[in-house]
């Protein structure tokens, strides 16, 4: 139940459930039972108006989940993509607003009080583990942020000696040092190489299992052509783009008074 005195926002939220997301109720978002109006008597014995949205009580919040397995992250990403494909941007997509079933197999995205209509500008498929595209190439901020946050893309930069370096241009310790040299005059080269090596080892430990799919860092990627490189390196892994845009007209049901 969402209780709110901001009537306009409640109506907007109810509208999204009834129109854009009607076909997602019970699979991607909780079932929507209605927008209700009523009165209550407050502590000062005055009658006050109240409105609330009632949705299905479902699952538990992910806010307390410490480790989120990759399969579950994919399930959440697919739910977020369905919502965007339906023409809605959540605007507050965090763990508190994601519900999970007891067996971890299903999720629902909830709390649409900040959400709004959205003409998704996503310009490319969302492909698991692919090199992280630039926001400009990708075209949708919320999904881009989400994919980065959940580690579903492979970041293409590493932090070394005070700044970020492209892993493609600094895929060996020697290259990394060469690119960073202007930042660290005077430090012994051996020490700097050891640091670069440690950074690369940590990166490989975290992302190395993905290289067979996306090519190792340093595979030829032309600067400034991210979209083209992305397409060329399209990995043979699970695609999240099997979701079709679903803008079919939906029935609007009456809001309960
Ligand atoms: Zn979008």
From TrEMBL:
GO MF entry, a single one: protein serine/threonine kinase activity
InterPro entries linked: Kinase-like_dom_sf, Tyr_kinase_AS
Lineage: Eukaryota, Fungi, Dikarya, Basidiomycota, Agaricomycotina
Keywords, in A-Z order: Kinase, Serine/threonine-protein kinase, Transferase
Source organism superkingdom: Eukaryota
Name of the protein in question: Serine/threonine protein kinase
Keyword Transferase: yes
SUPFAM superfamilies in alphabetical order: Protein kinase-like (PK-like)
Keyword Cell inner membrane set for record: no
Record organism: Phanerochaete sordida
